[in-house]
Amino acid sequence: MGYAAVAAAQCLAAVLPCSVSPVCAQQLSIRRYDVSDGLAHGTVTSIYQDAKGYLWFSTFEGLSRFDGYRFTNYDTRDGLSHPIINHVTEDRQGRLWVATNGGGVARLLDEPPQDAAHHAAAQPTGGNKFVSFPVGDTPRSNSVNRMLFDSQNNLWCVTDGGLYRAALAEANLKFAAVPSIKLSEAYAALEDRCGRLWFGVANELIEVSQDQLINHGPVGDASKDVIAGLIEDRQGRLLVASERGGLFEFAPAPDPGPRGQWRQLPLALKSRQLVETMLEDAAGALWLGTRDGLIKYKDGRQTLYTTAQGLSGNDVRALAEDGDGNLWLGTYGGGACKLSGELIVNYTQAEGLPNPRVARVFEDRAGRIKALLADSSMAEIGAEKIHLNRQLDDPPISSQSFLIEHDEQGRWWWGKSSEWLVRFKEPVVRLRSGRDLALADFFPAAVADTFVHFYEDETGKLWVSKGDGQLYRADATRPGRLNFENFPTDFPLLAPGPLMISDGAGGLWLGNRSRLGRLWQGKFAPLETSDGLPEIDPRSFFRDSRGWLWIGWRYKGVSMTKEPSAERPSFVNYSAAQGLSSGAVWSMAEDNFGRMYFGTDKGLDQLDPQTNQWRHYTTKDGLAGDKISQLYKDRRGQIWVATVRGVSRFDPRAERNRSRPAPIYLSRVNIAGDDLRLPETGAAHIPQLELAAARNNLTIEYVALQFQGEDYLRYQYQLEGVDQDWNPPTKSRSVTYGRLSPGTYRFLVRALTKDDVPGPTPAVFEFRILRPVSQRWWFLTLVGLAVGLLAYAGYRYRVARLLELERVRTRIAADLHDDIGSNLSQIAIWSEVARRQTAGSNGTERPKTGGDTAPEALERIAATARETASAMGDIVWAINPRRDRLSDLILRMRRFAEETFGASEIAWRLEAPQMNLSLQTDTRREVFLIFKEGVNNIVRHARSTSAEIALTVEGHRLRLQIRDDGCGFDPSGLDEGNGLESMRERAKNLGGELEVESAPGAGTTVRLEIPLTRRRWR
Question: How far, in Å, CA of 261 to CA of 245, rounded?
Fold first, then answer.
């Protein structure tokens, strides 16, 4: 199965010859990913980077999403209709679509919630994450190899059964086969910059322009070939890759209708090297994935990369370039590979380097790169092969910066720069002018002394040290014999030094193990530790293009002075605290952009003095080794890094184009054990949520999408409302907050790149934790009102009780005055009458004629005493709190009726409910008095033979009815008297009503209805 390319192609000149490289001498910086890293399957059929920055890998067992740290896999359990995925792309709305190998197409259900309420809902644990759509009615039509969305957002599907199209604007996605297209396997699709659509159906190229379909026929001469890829180069020319025929340029006809013209480009393929996919990178290089390796085609040159250069497999099925400039490869059975461009290229034993320990790298006068190895051999690093030169005759003469040359006569030269050299056996110094000086004429012992060190500064002064503590200087610019001047030093300049470098003003800095000094104005002075000079144990000197002097230390990093020729230069030290990865700095270099490089025991460190930003490169970034012995910049500005495991070539120009801020997303938010509903690919901003007071425990996870230096990504977060500033950088990708106080919060998180550059826009999550109900203003207001009402009710209750007590006292006083007092007065009167009658009979006094006799007076005294006792009983009963129940009232009524009606021989009946209802004192008393008055009226005035009394309680109302069969009366024509008026007044005091129904000869009915303002059940 072939696969379409994803970028524009480079303009290729057909007239240029193409040279085939069966193997490349360099080792690519490759990182592999397979099922052990979480990839769904080892066979990757396509790779796609979406608009957010996630990478999607189509595999034989589902779809994998990669964020730089881990893979998230999707299969048929998530709604995919088939496990084999062929292609992934996005529509014009940014929705992700998946092409399957038998189940049609599927769309990711990744729409973000529209409001905070949806966000706050818990994430479902199950359910489909994709919705699938069939393309056709046959299995071949549902084997979709490629998808394409045109400018009208129509979906075109390139299938094993031909070409299909559907309009996304329709409510239901319905596909229709494109007419005039034969049902055959199709693998390639492209929309050019003019809006024309191109499809590869089997071996034929199909063009769709303005709803017109043009068949341009088969590609090349291979009638049974298959079009594997289509891309458009930067000049608008269409490049077509066929599976067997190679690479073709197609020029369509100027007017729709006639067929275009084909031209084959010079790409040499082996018989089994079938092309599967094609891509042009941002640098203009064309990459072709074949079944037998990866081909790079640029400037007419063809280079092949295989497993020998680090690929995980030679059958390359997919290619893609991410936003960081990495080239991603999908292989058949070997997983995926990330090729980090050509920022760092390695040359190790695997590429033919005879010894991995490299002491020095240099460039000869012809521009050839050579490496001096630890075994005193030398290797020339070519583009296609590493050539081993013969071993050097003698160990090298000590020098600060090395250059070795092999001349036409087979002699080896050793020196400081291309202007002068030292030859072995017979040491000769070649000056800048080209003049050779035999050192034996000046230093006879130099031949035997292997520690002679030479240095020529920019003014033409030649400095020589033999290791005897003496420093010699001669002016090499003068003609004739050199006259050396002697400068004694205070410490021996022994191997492996000394280090010597000019200050740019005629002075010289010198360094050795545990020694540092300088020759200034003709005098040598040693230097001691001070501010900026943390130790005196130099390992490297370097003076940059600005004239600044850098000193690399054994343990304390590097120190720099901007005024090396000053009498008292001041230094600034850079160590781990400032960003240096190691305290041992063995070599230094400067690129053409003014950035400094430091070779350490822990890799390569880069410092931009203008921005004070650091970047670090190790074996994780592709270096051959972390322990660096030397740095060297060649004429093209590339930095060569000599390590104990090979040589690395660092391209600063490629590095300058690779730094970009990493987009960051909130991938998961858990609140009190519940996950928020977020898009499958995370959210950059979550609208403000309102959380209950008990939901104040949060765990927030986040991820930044960067695939270049992702191992160095660090994160900073800040919770506004808690933190005053950003927290220290950390590699952790989650943070937990527990027991947050009520209030408004704003969580921000940003990513820091390997050079500590923060992203421009942080991810944001805003939320508000509500106060507990007991602390909210309205609740406190209600509580305050309730307390006030309770206090007022208590006050009212107390007042009511006082008033009730006052009324009871007043009533008792009135009753005692009216009933008891009146009766006692009558008793006193009748007692006086009885006394006089008794005295008259004894001769003391005689009563008037016609008056009451003594027996009558005594009878009245007895009757009045009985009435008084009865009234006193009523008063005591009325105020007794133990008689507050309805049953007590009924019992009192029954006793009174029995006594009253029994004496008058009137038949009576009392109906009352059996209820444990408590009544207020006033209610109980007034109802009884009304009842008592009614009964008395029957006995006194009705002349009845029977009476019926009914007491009922319905709801919150009490009803009393008293009925007799007496003579009755006419209510409208008779004065009611004090009895009925008193009854009505008592009913009114209770908030009720009293009705009297009567007619002459028809008896009388008295009805009382009052509200029960207080009920208590026992």
Answer: 16
